[in-house]
Design goal:
about 325 residues, Sulfite Oxidase, Chain A, domain 2, eight-stranded mixed sheet, 8 helices, about 20% helix, disordered N terminus, binds the ligand Nc1nc2c(c(=O)[nH]1)N[C@H]1C(S)=C(S)[C@@H](COP(=O)(O)O)O[C@H]1N2, binds molybdenum atom
Length: about 325
Amino acid sequence: MLIKRNPNGIDLPFSSEITPQDVYEGRRQFLARVAAGAVVGSGLWEMANRQAFAQGAALAKLPATRNAAFSTGETQTSFADATHYNNFYEFGTDKSDPAENAHTLRTRPWTVQVEGEVRKPMTIDIDRLTKLAPLEERIYRLRCVEGWSMVIPWVGYSLSNLIKQVEPTGNAKYVEFVTLADRKQMPGVGSRVLEWPYVEGLRMDEAMHPLALLTVGMYGQVLPNQNGAPVRIVVPWKYGFKSAKSIVKIRFVRDQPKTAWNGIAPNEYGFYSNVNPNVDHPRWSQASERRIGEGGLFTPKRKTLLFNGYNEVASLYTGMDLKKFY
Ligand SMILES: Nc1nc2c(c(=O)[nH]1)N[C@H]1C(S)=C(S)[C@@H](COP(=O)(O)O)O[C@H]1N2
Ligand SMILES: [Mo]
């Protein structure tokens, strides 16, 4: 993958979408050949089948009621694309790495520790967490800071349901989400590309916004490992990296958390990271995006929308200079 050096002298794997996506396009060509029957009967065919089984066929169904008010009517990204074009650096930095490597993640038993500035801290088992509130299906746009986007039917419920249960104190100003960091299960945790564990965070009012989704599934099933099983956060008005995967800890804190990307390149990735076409990344424009699965190299890009089009969050930022608090 393309590694560029930023002005701080740190090697940064994130790069804009201007570069060709060799690995990914290679897979698409392969699938096209499968469709054309060119590989049926070959060893490749058997391999593709085995891979498909390992990566999706066995996922448990997760019934949920569609929340139409919180769902876009745009065409959904295919399950195949959403599960084979991923960022999950704990499993490698290439887009195809998580699908290949995340089978080593053990998602049962799994507990999430909810702690910090709360009256009722708890360690909650994933099965209980899944049933804490009625599951909804919400079709959200996900916009990666690299300049691509997807449309994914997530399954979960508003994070606020969990927050209310633990009763934050007046000192809780921010929420921190901590991903598992186990070298034995995650081959990328050992690389120095980021500091582990992966940490993300939200301001309390952002976390309480009904759009912030505690996510346990997608496409009517439990989350595939590469998408952050068994539980992740999805914050649709912010760049994708704010949506931390495979969460083991949710911590309520007084001070703005030191987050993974902000920590390694503060001049490139701010704490807020709201999707904003008017604030360019120092190395590329954020004005437009490519919808994964949509056409080819010459398909026109889409205009990126402020807050990824989720205008209902605008009031969270009244009076804030979004160029300063990027
Ligand atoms: N723990 C962890 N969470 C993560 C990441 C990561 O590398 N590690 N990548 C982020 C980025 S950059 C994006 S765009 C989204 C991608 O989510 P998806 O693969 O489910 O589409 O996950 C985010 N959550
Ligand atoms: Mo991303």
